[in-house]
Amino acid sequence: MPTHHRALSALATTALLSSGLALGTAGAAEAAPAQPATVVRTQSADGLGDLIALVTNPVLNLLGGVPGVGQAVSVTEPVVDNLLGVLDLDIVWLCDGNEIPGSQGFWTFVPTEAQAGCQLAAKTIATVLGVPISGITSVVEIPLQNLPGAVKSPVATKAVAVPATAKVGTLVAATPPVWDENATDVVTTYQWLRAGAPIAGATTATYTPTAEDLGKALSVRATGTRDKAPEPTVSTSSAVTVAQGDAPTATVQPAVQGVAEVGETLAVRPPTWSGTGTTANTYQWLRDGQPIAGATTATYVVTAADAGRALSARVTGTRTGYAAGTATTAPVTVGATEPLTATVPPSIAGPAVVGQTLTASPGTWNAPGATFTYVWRRDGITIPGATSPTYLTQVADIGRTLSVVVTATAAGFTEASETSRAVSIARLSSTTAASLTSRTVRKGTKATLRIALQAAGKAQTGQVEVHDGQRLLKTVSVAGQRTIKLPRLGVGKHRIRVAYVGSRTTAPSASKVLVLKVVKKK
Description:
Blueprint: H1 3-18, H2 45-56, E1 60-62, E2 73-75, E3 87-95, E4 98-99, E5 108-109, E6 119-128, E7 131-136, E8 140-141, E9 156-158, E10 166-167, E11 172-173, E12 178-179, E13 186-194, E14 197-198, E15 206-207, E16 217-226, E17 233-236, E18 240-243, E19 250-252, E20 255-257, E21 265-269, E22 272-273, E23 280-287, E24 290-291, E25 299-301, E26 310-318, E27 325-328, E28 332-333, E29 338-339, E30 342-344, E31 347-349, E32 357-361, E33 364-365, E34 371-378, E35 381-382, E36 390-392, E37 401-409, E38 413-414, E39 416-419, E40 423-424, E41 430-436, E42 440-442, E43 448-455, E44 458-459, E45 461-468, E46 471-479, E47 481-485, E48 492-500, E49 509-510, E50 514-519
Parallel strand pairs: 10-18, 29-38, 42-50
Antiparallel strand pairs: 1-2, 2-5, 3-4, 3-6, 6-7, 6-8, 9-12, 11-15, 13-14, 13-16, 16-17, 16-18, 19-22, 20-21, 21-25, 23-24, 23-26, 26-27, 26-28, 30-33, 31-32, 32-36, 34-35, 34-37, 37-39, 37-40, 41-43, 43-44, 43-47, 45-46, 45-48, 48-49, 48-50
């Protein structure tokens, strides 16, 4: 027992004993307990201590086994006789720490609907010789669901849902939640959420995403309310990321306005786009369906390159939050202008030999300000990459014909092309040289012959024929230089000549005639 309680017990005991006070059986309480109260019968100091312990540490008894509306609870009431005005004893019941009106003095208490949801406790108070002591029981909660005939909050047996996809400008409809397996007495309200935050004014079952929602997580919160239920129930859908809206379409097509002639200015009448909101237009002019470099404004000045061609304009409409829409005008054909003609045709200058540079002359045209482009051809077939006024001949050109196509353009004229006269590319020239180590040999001795073969100033490999007059002595292969033995020749003078037979890329050549004298043996 706490020290102040022991002191109080001793003081009270002294006073009670001196007054001849005894503890016994009391009369019936104002609110009869559901079970007999414990009787404290003692005249000792320890007995008074038990009494004080009952007051300072009261115990709450659940007479019905479980707390609830209509289920009685009680606190053990000390029974005291002959107090002689020395001791006052009382009790009051508390709901959430506040006194319940009309509950004072009742040691047994039956909660009503007014206490549903309360944290229920009892406070005992005793005054001994003017000294107050008190205690509070443990707390029990009186549940709401135990109210006889209570209305329950809805339960979402199937959550509210949104479609798997959402786009700016396209209405999204929520699939309502299912309350208490299809209950009909629940009122459902909605609140759409952007990244978890409420969207102002979006409080119906449908919502049309705006540009502000693009790329954000969109969800909906459904609240179910039942009349007289203690509180509403909330169901929130999973979120869907809002994608770009569908591209606008042209309800009125764009059109080209103006005179389609060289030097004139054309303009685009912009389209009327479907949907709402501001749409920005960008432009691209087309020649025969292909983009014209740099022509990206709403107006276009027709050039000579457009003569006889079809011009149109592609308009692209962009709107925040939506994919871009496109619309193309109907084409207009530009009137033909004076044709360009060459008064002096193009020509090719330079040595028509492999490894040499040829230069194209554009010729003379009837437009003094004409500009020219070049395309070289081999046997009438375009040579890839050969588009400059000069061309370095290649091995592949040997034995072939080369020409150049010159295309002229000029403001106010129709573009035209002319082809030069073709030139044939000759083979590389070669030189064949021969020398005898001795111009006189005796009969039966083989003469020694040195041969040197070159093409375009470099050593050449190929076959050469060695002749004695009109007679072929032998055929040999030479790789730049070679020394050979001639067959044994008869006595007399012999005219030795070496001839390179040539190749597809290199022309043949022959040496000077060498005179070889064969004399008799001594």
